[in-house]
Amino acid sequence: MEQMRFESWADRQVREAMERGAFDYLPGAGRPLDLRDTSEDWWIRAKIKRENLEIALPGPLALRREVERIAEAVADARTETEVRERCDDLNARVREHYARPATGPALVVRLVDVDAEVARWRARRSVPPSD
Questions:
Q1: Residue 68 near residue 111, CB atoms below 8 Å
Q2: Nearest Cα residue to 90 out of 121, 116, 69
Q3: Are 93 and 63 in contact (CB under 8 A)?
Q4: d(CA 108, CA 66)
Q5: Max alpha carbon distance in the chain (Å)?
Q6: Interior/surface letters 21-31, b for 16+ CB within 10 angstroms, e for the rest
Q7: Which residue, 22, 43, 62, 113, could crosslink 17 as a Cys pair with Cβ 3.0–4.6 Å?
Q8: Residues 88, 114 contacting (CB under 8 angstroms)
Q9: Which class for 62: exposed (0-12), middle (13-18), buried (19 or more C-beta within 10 A)?
Q10: What is the pLDDT of residue 131?
Q11: How far is Cα 95 from Cα 90, in angstroms, rounded to an integer?
């Protein structure tokens, strides 16, 4: 008895694309998947990073990113006052975000702990640079 083969429209599209070589040389081909990020929005984070879309982030997401990277943002500060000013500026923008009426889904953006950032900045500066 001969087996009948069923091929859906989607299966046919994939098979024909493979035959044309449409999947050859894709970015990341031959490398293992990076499965370290287990958050539910891993795919959007990966796309933002891969396509350098951070400049296009909407307000609250951009603020979140700034908060996450505050240590980098103050790393080149010359004085403690400058570190505090940068942190206070970011906190003011976070507060402004909360003062505006919500237009989309509510996103939590935490404030920067200014004293903790100053302490980290001081600790990094006390370590002599390595060659």
A1: no
A2: 69
A3: yes
A4: 13
A5: 84
A6: eeeeeeeeeee
A7: 22
A8: yes
A9: middle
A10: 47
A11: 9
